[in-house]
From TrEMBL:
Pathway: Purine metabolism; IMP biosynthesis via de novo pathway; 5-amino-1-(5-phospho-D-ribosyl)imidazole-4-carboxylate from 5-amino-1-(5-phospho-D-ribosyl)imidazole (N5-CAIR route): step 1/2
PROSITE patterns given in the database record: ATP_GRASP (PS50975)
Domain (ATP-grasp) ranges: 114-311
Catalysis: reaction(s): 5-amino-1-(5-phospho-beta-D-ribosyl)imidazole + hydrogencarbonate + ATP = 5-carboxyamino-1-(5-phospho-D-ribosyl)imidazole + ADP + phosphate + 2 H(+)
Keyword ATP-binding recorded: yes
PANTHER family, A to Z: PHOSPHORIBOSYLAMINOIMIDAZOLE CARBOXYLASE, PURINE BIOSYNTHESIS PROTEIN 6/7, PUR6/7
Keyword Nucleus: no
HAMAP family tied to this protein: PurK (MF_01928)
InterPro entries per the UniProt record, alphabetical: ATP-grasp, ATP-grasp_carboxylate-amine, ATP_grasp_subdomain_1, PreATP-grasp_dom_sf, PurK, PurK_C, PurT/PurK_preATP-grasp, Rudment_hybrid_motif
Family statement: Belongs to the PurK/PurT family.
Name listed for the protein in its UniProt record: N5-carboxyaminoimidazole ribonucleotide synthase
Pfam family, one: PurK_C
Gene symbol of the encoding locus: purK
Chain residues that bind ATP: K110, K150, E196, E197, A198, V199, E204, N281, E282
Length: 421
């Protein structure tokens, strides 16, 4: 047996974070002949369960980040929670961090993002930094109640966001109670805050693009994201009843942001559609929940495209593989079902053999994203019905439409295409 080091024919990409985004990026890497290296805190996180090349450690550990970067052709992220000083230390050592910290800070800090996009003349909500409780009331006096208080860093899936309404004058205390107490508590804990006007919107959209260091860019069709309690539950691709003009406007916004901020890799721009036009809500510079539909629904998935982009490969085509794709998140139920996940999958496939299932290897707990399903077809209503039923079944082991795993559907309920189990 030869004792020489094996020849390295393929690049190595290091991903900070071992969650489901890293897991699905690893799955895309396999097809490219690669094995993604991941930085993970625990061995039972979604990515370490399937990826062989794992560096133990957290994103706040510079030594672990440096160990991850050794021999990597690019270092990228499945979350934004990495200290800027650590990223800049890697860059100073010549590590190709993609996106660069100069770009990533706009996805890490909402105040940095709002100020930059506003300076670019892009549509953002009215906003202000908050350093004292009375500033919330002053902002509301100018822009009206309700207002949205946000943690400038660290919030996601509705966390770090508070909708504030005017206090009842009969109950008011100083500095706009009861929200004054909340603001004081957050500031005392060291939470940087901003306040924004509450945007009157029709719905939420997402425009996702990819950009390479060479400057090549590609955009997927604009999608509608359906939110419940601040968390995405469905994605409809393409966004139904969206005019071509509005879709091009959303894609152009995302492409401009990617270029001017010098983003490399994926960029997701979350948008509010209002009567007056589009308003930018959030940015993410990584694969994103709004792009999970692309695994089966686009010629190039967001995960493969992210790898192509950070390695400066030519980008893949983003055309859809079906007229309609619906993604539905599988969320942990209030009470974990007695039926095993494997048995739930058996029953799901017996009823809907065309539903594509992606589970993340996570333990179930209420509202935790433990997977998603994709449904492709030609009719939005039918795809959506099937995706929502499938996701709810995987969450709860209950069919929302009364279907019985032994007797089939009640009278008047569509049977779908699956055989009865």
């Amino acid at each position: 047996m030869s004792t020489s080091a094996p020849r390295r024919d393929f690049p190595v990409v290091g991903m900070v974070g071992g969650g489901q985004l890293a897991r699905m990026t690893h799955q895309a890497a396999i097809g490219l002949g690669q094995s993604l290296r991941v930085l993970a805190v625990k061995p039972d996180e979604p990515a370490p369960l399937v990826a062989p090349d794992v560096v133990p450690g957290g994103a706040d550990d510079l030594a672990a980040l440096e160990a991850l970067a050794v021999g990597c052709d690019a270092v990228t992220f499945d979350h934004e929670g990495v200290p800027q000083e650590h990223l800049r230390a890697l860059v100073a050592k010549g590590v190709p961090v993609r996106p660069h910290p100069d770009a990533l800070q706009h996805a890490q800090d909402k105040l940095v993002m709002r100020r930059r996009l506003s300076a670019m003349g892009l549509p953002v909500p009215a906003f202000a930094e908050i350093t004292a409780p009375e500033q919330v009331d002053a902002f509301a006096a100018e822009h009206g109640w309700p207002v949205v208080l946000k943690a400038a860093r660290g919030g996601y899936d509705g966390r770090g966001v508070w909708f504030l309404r005017a206090a009842d004058p009969a109950e008011a205390r100083s500095a706009g109670a009861p929200h004054g107490d909340l603001v004081r508590e957050l500031l005392a804990a060291g939470t940087p805050l901003l306040v924004e006007e509450a945007v009157a919107m029709r719905r939420e959209l997402a425009a996702q693009v990819a950009r390479s260091p060479f400057g090549q860019a590609a955009a997927w069709p604009v999608v509608e994201t359906v939110q419940e309690a601040g968390q995405c539950v469905e994605v409809l691709a393409p966004a139904p009843d969206l005019s071509e003009e509005r879709a091009l406007e959303a894609q152009s916004l995302a492409l401009r942001i990617a270029q001017e901020l010098d983003v490399t890799g994926l960029l997701a721009v979350e948008l509010f559609e209002t009567d007056a036009g589009l308003v930018i809500n959030e940015l993410a510079m990584r694969p994103h929940n709004s792009g999970h539909w692309t695994i089966e629904g686009a010629r190039t998935s967001q995960f493969e495209q992210h790898l192509r982009a950070v390695l400066d490969y030519p980008l893949g085509t983003t055309t859809m593989t079906a007229p309609v794709v619906v993604m539905a998140n599988v969320l942990g139920a209030d009470a974990t079902p007695e039926m095993s996940v494997d048995e739930r999958i058996h029953h799901l496939f017996a009823r809907f053999p065309d539903v594509k299932v992606h589970l993340y290897g996570k333990g179930e707990r209420p509202l935790r994203k433990v997977g998603h399903v994709n449904v492709l077809g030609t009719d939005l209503a039918e795809c959506r019905r099937k995706a929502v039923l499938a996701a709810h079944w995987l969450s709860t082991a209950q069919w929302d439409d009364g279907w019985s795993v032994h007797e089939g559907a009640p009278a008047g309920v569509p049977t779908g295409t699956g055989a009865r189990r």
